Amino acid sequence: MSSAHITFDTTGDKIARRVRKMRPSAVRNLFAAATRDDVISLSGGMPAVSLLPVEDVRRATLAAIETERARAVSLQYGPTDGLVGLRAVLADMMRDLGIRVKPEQLLVTSGAQQALTLIAEAFIDPGDIIITEGPTYLGALQAFSAFEPDVRAIPFDDEGMRMDLLEAELKRIGKNNPRLKFCYTIPNFQNPGGVTMTAERRRRLLELAAEYNFMVVEDDPYGRLRYDGGHQVPLKAMDDSVIYLGTISKMLGPGLRTGWVAAPEAVLARINLVKQGADLCGSAFDQLIVQHYFADIPWQRTLQKFIGVYKERRDTMLAALEEFFPPEARWTHPEGGMFLWITLPDYMDTDSMLAEALEAGVTYVPGNSFFPDGVTGKNSMRVNFSFETPESITEAVRRLAGVIEERLELYRVFINAGALPGYGKEAVMAENERENWDEVIVASEENEEAVMQSHDGDAAQIEIAEQKVAEAQEEAAE
């Protein structure tokens, strides 16, 4: 007799409405698959912690526990806004970026991710308007979504968020709209896009914030990881009212859950109140390790090692994309950070293609994960270059290119037959010497249905689709 025990969830009608609407993280869902030996992961944003000097980490850790005085701090409850010594160290580090703040203008959090949730809880009511880049960091969308905002995603180009599109959206929202709360931006090597906002656009963003009365939240996890070009002045250095988020995850390690918020003291007071209800205080043990690492260890030397290795891996990925990817694809060229954004023709679906990529032994994050509607961006993907070795990156891109090429091959048949309206018009017209594109599109409804059937990748459906395309070609020839 089977001893299997079946349990049923009896809490379904008790779950909060806001939780029902929350989407799981695509990166978290991929984590198990990405750790398989046969899979090369381009999905997570993991730093290469193996580059950290073990002795430096050991020294900082021992300093947090080796004396009775240290243990009295590291193993005890601490202040909600973080250890005073750590806040002083972080304030000194921010001066390197041109940001002048006092320790009392900083609040330490359990990673910058917690900071996003605290800001959302402190300022967002259901229906409030939040502006982000589109696409944007999926962890921020998760943090915000629990509080049911109306998220407006503004597209970016190679110079960062499009200020013309932002201004057009703000005109629709209206000046001094109490529902408009803040704009969340990652101006340096944006996640997932890899692009950097220019100085001109940074100034314009701050001008619009003053004109339309909204706060600016500047998330800067990658700002020190620059490989090309010159330093960009942070928004916080240009305007003290900016809410700045920092983290040690990319300079030391994400396992030491330590981030911070730099903001006007009135803003910090509200965030502090929310944090008291969340965790009372962060890990004093983690904070003291971080404090000693950045105060007593030559950490800049290790940071330069990270920069050198990541630059090589970025260059390897860009070279592999040029070598293996099809001409229909395009991608960003980040000057730093950990990610780049790949865009395929808009009839492609990287969400459904992920299963094929996993079968080929490579992962990425589908682009729709980075948009608030969960639909936009399905023809795009984010790939990471910081974690895998150059050899693995090259192989991963080769595998991924093979998966993409296999799908594109069928679509090219449709395009060449004129069965995919809106694509390849000029090429088909030239080939058939026709003046009217309408003559090429034959039985368009049947052809579109065939294209939709091909999405599932079923052999029988593909055969039907190809038959319909062949019929369309014959009718067009007549």
TrEMBL record:
<keyword id="KW-0663">Pyridoxal phosphate</keyword>
<dbReference type="InterPro" id="IPR050859">
    <property type="entry name" value="Class-I_PLP-dep_aminotransf"/>
</dbReference>
<comment type="similarity">
    <text>Belongs to the class-I pyridoxal-phosphate-dependent aminotransferase family.</text>
</comment>
<comment type="subunit">
    <text>Homodimer.</text>
</comment>
<dbReference type="InterPro" id="IPR004839">
    <property type="entry name" value="Aminotransferase_I/II_large"/>
</dbReference>
<protein>
    <submittedName>
        <fullName>Aminotransferase class I/II-fold pyridoxal phosphate-dependent enzyme</fullName>
    </submittedName>
</protein>
<dbReference type="InterPro" id="IPR015424">
    <property type="entry name" value="PyrdxlP-dep_Trfase"/>
</dbReference>
<dbReference type="InterPro" id="IPR015422">
    <property type="entry name" value="PyrdxlP-dep_Trfase_small"/>
</dbReference>
<dbReference type="GO" id="GO:0008483">
    <property type="term" value="F:transaminase activity"/>
</dbReference>
<feature type="domain" description="Aminotransferase class I/classII large">
    <location>
        <begin position="39"/>
        <end position="400"/>
    </location>
</feature>
<dbReference type="GO" id="GO:1901605">
    <property type="term" value="P:alpha-amino acid metabolic process"/>
</dbReference>
<dbReference type="Pfam" id="PF00155">
    <property type="entry name" value="Aminotran_1_2"/>
</dbReference>
<keyword id="KW-0032">Aminotransferase</keyword>
<keyword id="KW-0808">Transferase</keyword>
<dbReference type="InterPro" id="IPR015421">
    <property type="entry name" value="PyrdxlP-dep_Trfase_major"/>
</dbReference>
<dbReference type="GO" id="GO:0030170">
    <property type="term" value="F:pyridoxal phosphate binding"/>
</dbReference>
